[in-house]
Amino acid sequence: MRLEGKTAIITGGASGMGRATVLRFLAEGANVVIADYNAATGAETLEQATQQGFGARARFVKTDVAKEADIEAMIACALDNFGRLDVLFNNAGVGGAIGPLTELTVEAFDYTFDVLTKSVFLGMKHGTRVMKKQGDGGSIINTASIAGLSGDAGPMIYSAAKAAVISLTKSAAVELAPERIRVNAICPGLIWTPLAHGGKTEKYAEVFTTGQPWPERGEGEHIAGAALFLATDDARFVTGESLIVDGGLTAAGPELSKRFKQNSGRTADFVGITRGSTGEPPVLKKL
Predict the structure, then answer these.
(1) Disulfide check for 185: which of 67, 89, 121, 142 has CB 3.0–4.6 Å away?
(2) What's the CA angle centered on 231, arms 230 and 234, to 5 degrees?
(3) Active-site annotation holds for 111
(4) What is the mean pLDDT of the chain?
(5) With contact defined as beta carbons under 8 Å apart, do 37 and 45 qualify?
């Protein structure tokens, strides 16, 4: 098992890509702290881990990743239960602000950057403190997005927040390299998760299958595999990178506004905030 004896924290670990990574890391021998805002899906994920025989190596902690005290409590959970921290996967996310530029609110902007970008900063800040003290390096993985790589691969504020994650990743990788702490990002494309399809599985099934050159839809397991590589010694000379996992979508040119018109500022007929799989309802207003 490639992560035996290692301890990992995975934010947004209660659903989608996070849950898939939790289960994969546990299967590879890791101790895993599942950090998520949604306590109900957190309990479900913990139950799945228990059913697969991994319950003794899994813990759940309800976490608002935009709050520093919650991040500190998340780190403490790993140390109190497993004694160390080797891998931190800053994965929590929401769709955040959607709508035309002229209609977006400061509240929606702040919420999006809090969850997607400030959370990564806070995770790296406190995770790095522990890894430095341990003295034997570590791996930090941040979920960015292909939306952070171009101008038409996601909603505007979401894309800006993810671009910031990519930049933070590069800067932190340079600073932390002497400590043997690797920092990398994953840039998912169209991945079939509750956050992405929003429960509208019939409506979006074809788009997720045919939306990229690869003839199969992206699944959480594909991101879990990429995260596993970055977490292990197989990637010991890889830092400061943004690994694109999108079935060739970026290579072809995303143009997501043509696939998801309701999420594009240029064509949307509503404005507001989506909150993903947090369990909190969206706040939307028709224009």
Answers:
(1) 142
(2) 65
(3) no
(4) 93
(5) no
